[in-house]
Specification:
This protein is an alpha+beta fold and about 325 residues long. It has 9 helices and 13 strands. A 6-stranded antiparallel β-sheet has the order 1-2-13-10-7-8. The chain has a 5-stranded antiparallel β-sheet with strand order 3-4-5-6-9, covered by helices on one side. A two-stranded antiparallel sheet has the order 11-12. Bound molecules: zinc ion.
Length: about 325
């Protein structure tokens, strides 16, 4: 069984459990029909026909299957009208998601922040958010999250997660507690098969950084000593309710840079070999002194050069945070 099939099976079993419960109490015909579809998909997994289009019998798009293990017909075989409706929905979702992103370059509260956001399809499971510091002395929050799976479902959950953080941050709790509370609410809102990894930063105007990591790839710090990953962190969000997220503190000097990224950068793969954190750190070391937009482009280009034309398989986001020179 492939990883995609294993995840689909897990997601279908979780859904089945919920449906059985609902059908028992409500007995609605639509619930029972849906339960039949889930059982049919589980049966197809058993006999090895899951993931094949019911019309042309060709394998369907893995990203679409990951987002919804119940799809039965490939996009090419859908009736025209249905396909157009699906495309319209996806375009609307993509527009909404782009509108939720902050400006791609920002200077605020003593910090310069820039990012590259590259969805693999129309929508992304990666999201960047930047808020706060609307008055002097208030912290600036930066989030980079990655919801498991791809497509519409992942992008909707990502939007939900960001709304949670904005609401919870309003009372300015310690960062570890903020992530812990968001985790509890997120776990309540998602099914067992969905989770998110995330890095949250709370930046103050004196160069202070609080960093909490929920199962996300380790951010890289480029300072006078070189480049190194920031260790530590907790579980991904949404897996268990009662877990804690220790916050890490550091102080950045003028010109020092933190690089956050999603695994679409480091786990880019060619001939079963990953780009990897070693090459990623080396790319950052070479570009660390350059303006942020050039630094980001250089880091992306090194991963693309490594891929040598092989197709990128995941959403990719790179976020650079640099302490600005302080004016006397
Ligand atoms: Zn087909």
């Amino acid at each position: 069984m492939t990883a995609l099939e294993a995840r689909a099976r897990q997601s279908l079993l979780a859904r089945r459990e919920q449906l059985v419960e609902l059908a028992a109490t409500r007995g609605e015909r639509r619930l029972v029909e849906l339960l039949h579809r889930v059982d049919a998909a589980l049966g197809a997994l058993e006999v090895g026909t899951w993931g094949l289009c019911a019309v042309c019998h060709e394998p369907m798009d893995p990203a679409r299957l990951a987002a919804d293990p119940l799809v039965r017909v490939c996009l090419e075989c859908l009736p025209d009208e249905e396909r157009r409706a699906l495309e319209r929905d996806l375009e609307a979702a993509a527009r909404t998601q782009r509108a939720l992103l902050p400006a791609s370059r920002t200077q605020r509260a003593g910090w310069e922040i820039a990012y590259l956001w590259e969805p693999h399809g129309a929508v992304s499971g990666d999201h960047v958010d930047l808020f706060g510091a609307s008055r002097p002395g208030e912290p600036l929050y930066l989030l980079l999250g990655d919801v498991s799976g791809k497509g519409l479902g992942a992008s909707l959950l990502q939007a939900h997660l960001n709304a949670l953080f904005r609401a919870l941050a309003a009372s300015d709790p310690p960062l570890g507690e903020l992530v812990g509370r968001a985790n509890r609410l997120f776990a309540d809102a998602t099914t067992a098969s969905r989770y998110a990894t995330l890095v949250a930063l709370r930046l103050d105007a004196e160069g202070g950084v609080e960093l909490a990591n929920a199962g996300h790839p380790r951010p890289l710090l480029a300072d006078a000593r070189g480049v190194r990953p920031i260790e530590g962190g907790g579980l991904p969000l949404g897996l268990v309710c009662d877990t804690t997220f220790p916050a890490h503190r550091l102080v950045l000097q003028e010109g020092e840079t933190l690089l956050l990224y999603t695994d679409g950068w480091t786990e880019a793969e060619r001939d079963e070999e990953e780009f990897g954190i070693g090459r990623a750190a080396a790319a950052l070391r070479r570009a660390a002194a350059r303006p942020l937009d050039e630094l980001l482009a250089a880091c992306r280009d090194e991963a693309d050069a490594f891929l040598a034309g092989a197709r990128r398989g995941d959403d990719r986001t790179l976020v650079a945070v640099r302490r600005q020179p302080q004016r006397p």
